Amino acid sequence: MSTSATKTGHPVSTPVKTPASKQSNSSAANYQQKPAIPLRFVTAASLFDGHDAAINIIRRILQGAGVEVIHLAHNRSVAEVVETALQEDAQGIAISSYQGGHVEYFKYAVDLLKEAGAEHIRLFGGGGGVIVPAEIKELEAYGVERIYSPYDGQDMGLAGMIDDMIKRCSMGNYQDITVDSKQLSDADNRPNLSRLITAIERGELSEEQQKSLREQAQFLSKSVPVLGITGTGGAGKSSLTDELIRRFRQDADDQLKIAVLAIDPTRRKTGGALLGDRIRMNAIYHPNIFMRSIGTRGASGEVPESLTDIISALRLGGFDLVVVETPGIGQGDAGIVPYVDIPIYVMTPEFGAQSQLEKIDMLDYAELAIINKFDRKGSDDAYRDVCKQIQRNREAFDQLPEQMPVFGTIASRFNDDGVTAAYQKLVKLLQARGLRNFEQHLAVVDCKTPSEKTVVVPADRQRYLAEIAAAVRSYHRHVALQANLAREQQQLLAAKDMLISSDSIKNGQPVGSTIDRLAAERLQAMDGRASQLLEGWPDQVKAYSGDQKVDSLSNGKQITTQLNTLSLSGNKIPRVSLPRYKDHGELLKWLMLENLPGEFPYTAGVFPFKREGEDPARMFAGEGDAFRTNQRFKVLSEHADAKRLSTAFDSVTLYGWDPDERPDIYGKVGNAGVSICTLDDMKALYDGFDLCNPTTSVSMTINGPAPTILAMFLNTAIDQQVDQFVAEHKRQPEDSEYQSLRAETLKRVRGTVQADILKEDQGQNTCIFSTEFSLRMMGDMQQYFIDQQIRNFYSVSISGYHIAEAGANPISQLAFTLSNGFTFVEAYLARGMKIDDFAPNLSFFFSNGMDPEYTVMGRVARRIWSISMRDRYGANARSQKLKYHIQTSGRSLHAQEMNFNDIRTTLQALIAIYDNCNSLHTNAYDEAITTPTEESVRRALAIQLIINQEWGLAKNENPSQGAFIIDELTDLVEEAVLQEFEKISDRGGVLGAMETGYQRGKIQEESLYYEHKKHDGSLPIVGVNTFLNDSDEEPVEIELARSTDAEKHSQIERLKDFQQLNSSESAAMLKKLQDAVRQGDNGFEVLMEAVRCCSLGQITNALFDVGGQYRRNM
Questions:
Q1: Is residue 16's pLDDT more than 60?
Q2: 405 with 390: CB under 8 angstroms?
């Protein structure tokens, strides 16, 4: 809530003025006056990245203030937030929202609360400067309790805002508590049940009500069984619970009514609690599912004292089944057993020695033991040991250990048959305890552990990052050795020359012969590559010393490059500056660690020279509908022959939805990006641009639904060539001609699609499918690229930008991004691809900020990548070249003193150009509060044009080389990244670290550290916490670039027309797509067909059924 966003959905910081020391004292005083009964807040973000980090900061401070927080995380619909608040009987809702329909979002939330008779629930929000003062007034007048602006953040501070939220919420004292089963079982009036549970927790029931509740529940104890799910912390209980609920829904065709009670521990020190199980749930959003989260509130065990009565209340709620999930427990805990009919115990394979099983109390009582995360090492041994332990506990020696009720599961995998097997055993146990019979639709499985344990990165390759770190360090040792040999050889030869000139002899023999032998030994000991570098250096110096450099290509063509530019003073300014080392050791060290641009290890850049007539400028556009964005593209490309079309999509498209009239979708259509949902939209978006022209390249910033959007783009390029053929030949191409056009188009298109699902999870962005399925689809895309020989288009842009926007510092951004890149390498190798077939299709995307480390981010990335690809993976020269895009920092855009933003952006752009980035986007100064206007984009583009065309030193292409501080920073940042590689490796590689939330936790901690330093003034930010404008004038009104109602209605109508036109084909095509995924065929290949008759939303929903939805993490 304390951040705002750029046009592409990237958050920026809000200004803060009040010193933290003053805030914390008053805040502490307020926090000490905690009520005995905690307030309950629902926290969520309507969108993604930094707003997820922001709302996490808010919920942490709320917890510290003694509040019970039900955290929903990012990308939550209004219905999900309001339904949660009603079921959880919350007193407050705190939402981080911003441009992309925030007005409609908040108004819709107010409307739904009023419809539910829940006006007492206070609604709070923030979105940084994006929610402008006029909109704040409008929303607060409509019924939002308060929207916090950057100026509130400046005056109140984070803690002050939390204090204000708490003061504005009322605990409430219900007068209409009922224990009547008819009213409690009324599905249309669930707040009755929610309020009853609250009253039980608070101890507000009268003796008569309590007696009636227990007596009524007693009659239902034989027909409404209670399932208890307990286990060790981090075993995946919430994920498993969600998967079991999903199977109950599928198997019973949504006929069963289920109540879920999730218990989390209350912090004794503060009285607050993080009630975080809802965040993991995807299957609970259905009228027949009710979920309530409760804290232990001082209870000594893992269950609250009021649990019996709460279960009684749920039994009266008309449910067929009650599920109780407890917090993580230790070995000796079995506190859930007396409260439930069927207890199950969830654990992981990593329980230690077999003897540890003898200490687990729950193995005596559990009707099922489930070993989750069965894809981990040692799972088969763990399964055997647990089976034997339960056999001993039960003294069931007349049965085989394999007959014990022990199941292996991978709850994180969609449709895992181990979970299904455990579920089907569970149904039998529950029906024996009174669960009503129902017609079952799931096919029976005959396994007890997952039949498939395929993993993205094989277990024997999980140390790949540690191996890469070792390889890079080994290369540095090798360089030092070679440099020393070269130096000694040079010194020996120089000594020989001096001795000969003085006619010295020793023992009657010339000293020169001894020296020749010593020098020859050193030459022989030198690596062949190192010797060649030294031998070839004089020729390199000669080649770069004239006015022109002529290179001959393998096809006989010659390329002539001008080597100098002439300054106004008449001086020749070299495009590439060469070192003046005389010492061979220093020269060789430079050649092996730095070298010229275009030479291994590509520290100075992957190309010898920038392309003539093609600046690195790549400005994003995306607003309204395809037609409006198409016009913006044409304006942006007027200044250059090269057309670099970088596309930002609205959040409806980013999440794979179709435009809709539902307010929280409607408001986002065409805001903070362009709305694209059909192939027709894509054709309109790039109309007028020749997508096969070598000077045209397209960049699409989209991740979750990236395969679908990419398929639309490739079809657009193909159809464009077909249209050109028709226009030229006045007829449709024959099949062979079409296939030739298609193949040539795929080989010629240039550009990139982001598609990086790993950083989406780490930065909490636009994940929509399960991570495993998304990675599979990325692999299918890359395989398609190999099969179709698509060599000029990047199948993924491995992004650190969104990691940085979510709060990471430059070291974490670089380490996480590179480690993600190497994870894709390992994953594709595991699929059987060859390194040189796919590595050229990988690209990177970084953010440049104000910290010193950003100055060397590109050079460090290039060096680590090239050394690893050559020495670790045996890749060729093309595969060794890391190409990357830079976008200036969104976190550096501030809503206060916005004109200062261009200064920060200019500095960030300058270091990006000095570091030889391959393309660059400069943020517009007003992206702190709006989609940039034409005027602000022109200014942002001018920053690059001025640097490239006016700034004299930019004419040189290696200005950073040779500076002492650059050398020192390069080594420092590289070592810090390698150390981070080792930390990730110790956690099982990138995927293992993601499972424990390592990257996400680090990003949030670094974000919080930045916010604190900004708030206490120890990190000076000019115009934000220092050099403040003393004027009391109102903030200047600026133009807001928002999509129009006409554009939104047009998109919805165009979507309907497209779906109607293709209605006869779409259903069969969607089934074909699902079948291909189920059978393990290449899903992207079928997507290329599907986008011709199916909309984005139709495809997304079809893939949900076979690939699963993303499961959010805390």
A1: no
A2: yes
Looking at 221-298, list the stretches that DSSP marks H as alpha helix, in order from N- to C-terminal side: 237-251
Predicted model pTM = 0.91
Length of the chain: 1114
pLDDT > 90? residue 1030: no
- Interhelix angle 50-64/998-1016, rounded to 10 degrees, is 70
Name every residue whose Cβ is closer than 8 Å to that of residue 1101 and which is 6 or more positions away in sequence.
Answer: none
Which DSSP symbol is given to 1037?
A: P
In the chain, the amino acid numbered 103 is: V
Question: What would the two tokens of residue 726 be?
Answer: 């028709």
Residues in a beta bridge with 444: none
Q: What token pair was written down for 732?
A: 């449709």
- Enter the tokens of residue 88: 């959880």
Whether 22 shows a pLDDT value over 50: the answer reads: no
Distance, CA of 715 to CA of 1103 (rounded, Å): 20
Radius of gyration of the chain (CA): 32
How many CA atoms within 13 Å lie on the side-chain side of 828? 29
By C-alpha distance, which of 1071, 1061, 1062, 1060 is closest to 1099? Answer: 1071
Query: Tokens for 499?
Result: 């001795």
pLDDT, one tens digit per residue, over 836-887 is 999 999 999 999 999 999 999 999 999 999 999 999 999 999 999 999 999 9
Say yes or no to pLDDT of 7 above 60: no
Q: Is the dihedral of CA 117, 121, 126, 127 positive or negative?
A: negative
Give the Cα separation of 504 and 499 in Å (integer): 6
Cis peptide before 450 (omega within 30 of 0): no
> CA 541 to CA 587: how far, in whole Å?
12
pLDDT tens-digit series, residues 617-648? 887 889 999 999 999 999 888 878 889 899 99
Sign of the dihedral defined by the CA atoms of residues 620, 623, 629, 634, in that order: negative
Query: Which of 255, 273, 253, 272 is CA-nearest to residue 264?
Result: 273
Instruction: Count CB neighbours of 887 within 10 A.
Output: 30
Gap between the Cα atoms of 1073 and 1067, Å rounded: 10
> Taking a C-beta distance cutoff of 8 angstroms, is the pair 402, 374 a contact?
no
The residues pairing with 45 across neighbouring beta strands, listed in sequence order, are 96
Query: Which tokens in the block code for residue 1053?
Result: 């109508």
DSSP state of 436: P
**Residue 657: is its pLDDT beyond 90?**
yes
Question: Going by C-beta distance under 8 Å and a sequence separation of 6 or more, which residues neighbour residue 134?
Answer: none
Closest of 250, 240, 177 to residue 213, by C-alpha: 177
- Give the model's confidence band at 934: pLDDT under 50 very low, under 70 low, under 90 confident, else very high: confident
Mean pLDDT, rounded, for 455-471: 93
Within 8 A by CB and 6+ apart from 1027, the residues are none
Name, in order, each residue with C-beta under 8 angstroms of 491's C-beta and a sequence gap of 6 or more. Answer: none
Task: Report the relative pairing of strands 68-73 and 40-45 from DSSP bridges.
Answer: parallel
- Four-residue CA torsion sign, 647, 650, 654, 658: negative
Instruction: Compute CA 355 distance to the chain's CA centroid, rounded to the nearest angstrom.
Output: 40
Read off the tokens for 103: 């007005």
Backbone angles phi, psi at 402, to 5 degrees: -70, -15
Cα atoms in the 13 Å half-sphere on the side-chain side of 359: 11
The alpha carbon torsion through 71, 76, 77, 78 (nearest 10 deg) reads: 30
Task: Pull the structure tokens for residue 1090.
Answer: 């599907």
Mean pLDDT, rounded, for 246-254: 97
Contact 222, 354 (CB under 8 A): no
Residue 134 CB coordination number (10 Å): 10
Burial label, 365 (beta-carbon count in 10 A; 0-12, 13-18, 19+): middle
Cis-peptide into 601, omega within 30 deg: yes
Query: What is the DSSP code (8-state) at residue 1039?
Result: -
Give the helix, strand, coil percentages of the chain, each rounded to 5: 50, 15, 35
Q: What's the CA gap between 52 and 1007, in Å, rounded?
A: 11
d(CA 1002, CA 1009): 10
